[in-house]
Design a protein that fits this description.
The protein is α+β, with helices and mostly antiparallel strands. It has 12 helices and 12 strands. Belongs to the GHMP kinase family.
């Protein structure tokens, strides 16, 4: 796919799931994992980023419909940075139509940027007739952000989007990732489907500033920050045990422990709105929870005691929070191609 005359006449539809981080989030960042290694427990959910790609346009231009619609002559002029570097990496500079659709916008802490990158790369691989290993897909999508765009992001989101399911990720200091699927027994699956809830706190955030500050603190050897990151990493083992052994009543308190540690990392991790909603949740049936993503706003993940879901939903909805229903999603990224023309039957 290097230009208008060489682009295969294909339409591709791909999707990748978003994720909910269960433990160890932040220890996958290069600033920490590069020194100490990282460990994360994450879960793909049935909220997706879908990419539609048509490797042909009427006049050879590029039409892109993401959070804004843009028509331009060249890929290099695209405003969406991930799309711009992904398409350029694949030698695509013109003659393309591409759009994305999402169940939840960026800035909620669900890993939507990574899911978009993974879905777009899956679509490109399919359009080029390549079969791409999902681990390779995760690495390439991560490289787009870390290397091409210089963003201080870790490995968790891209692996969750590419592989799906519930995963533990062991990140070596070299950056090599060892993903391991987690076997979830039925009692835990019932809990994840019915007692683990997410609410949008009404404030989309840009995690870049929070992540950059955290990375700088770790890089300069700040003992306070590093000790809290160590504490987050240590919570992965008990969370893994709670999930695999069906000890679902341990999950909420473990989420709360993470949240209290994350709040100590920076005064910008939480907001007055988040604090108010979390306090309300704890007063109305939540036995723990945490803010998803780096902080500064986004989604509250709440563990709710059995039978308390309806009252908690009513209270948080009245307080202005918007629930984002989800269940675990066991599959990863996928893509399907549809030929736009059969060359032997094309009219002259």
């Amino acid at each position: 796919m290097t230009g208008r005359t060489e682009a295969p006449a294909l339409a591709v539809l791909s999707r990748a799931p978003m994720r909910v981080s269960l433990a160890g989030g932040g220890t996958d960042l290069p600033s920490y994992a590069g020194q100490f290694g990282g460990r994360v427990l994450t879960m793909a959910i049935d909220r997706f980023v879908t990419v539609a790609l048509q490797a042909r346009s009427f006049n050879g231009s590029v039409t892109a419909a993401f959070e804004e619609t843009q028509v331009t002559a060249r890929v290099s002029d695209l405003h969406n940075a991930i799309a711009r570097v992904a398409l350029t990496r694949h030698g695509i500079h013109e003659n393309l139509q591409v759009a994305s659709f999402t169940d939840a916008p960026s800035g909620l802490g669900l890993g939507s940027s990574a899911a978009f990158g993974v879905a777009l790369l899956a679509a490109l691989a399919t359009a080029e007739g390549r079969t791409t290993d999902r681990t390779q897909l995760a690495e390439e999508a991560g490289d787009l952000e870390r290397i091409d765009l210089g963003r201080p992001v870790g490995k968790q989101d891209h692996y969750a989007a590419a592989l799906g399911g519930v995963l533990t990720l062991e990140i070596a200091r070299s950056g090599r990732v060892r993903p391991s699927p987690v076997v979830v027994p039925q009692p835990t699956m019932d809990y994840l489907c019915h007692r683990l809830l997410a609410f949008y706190a009404g404030q989309r955030r840009d995690a870049g500033a929070v992540l950059t500050a955290q990375a700088q603190s770790v890089s300069r050897g700040d003992h306070r920050t590093i000790s809290r990151m160590h504490a987050l990493a240590k919570l992965v083992a008990p969370m893994h045990a709670a999930i695999t052994e069906g000890k679902v009543d341990d999950i909420g308190p473990l989420l709360d422990q993470q949240w209290q540690i994350k709040r100590e990392l920076s005064p910008h991790v939480s907001t007055p709105t988040v604090d108010r909603l979390y306090r309300l949740a704890r007063e109305h049936g939540a036995d723990g929870g945490r803010l998803l993503g780096a902080g500064g706003g986004g989604c509250l993940l709440l563990s709710v005691q059995a039978g308390e879901q309806a009252p908690l939903r009513a209270v948080l909805t009245a307080a202005g929070a918007h629930e984002i229903p989800f269940v675990p999603f066991t599959a990863g990224a996928d893509a399907t191609a549809l030929p736009l023309t059969t060359r032997e039957h094309r009219r002259a």
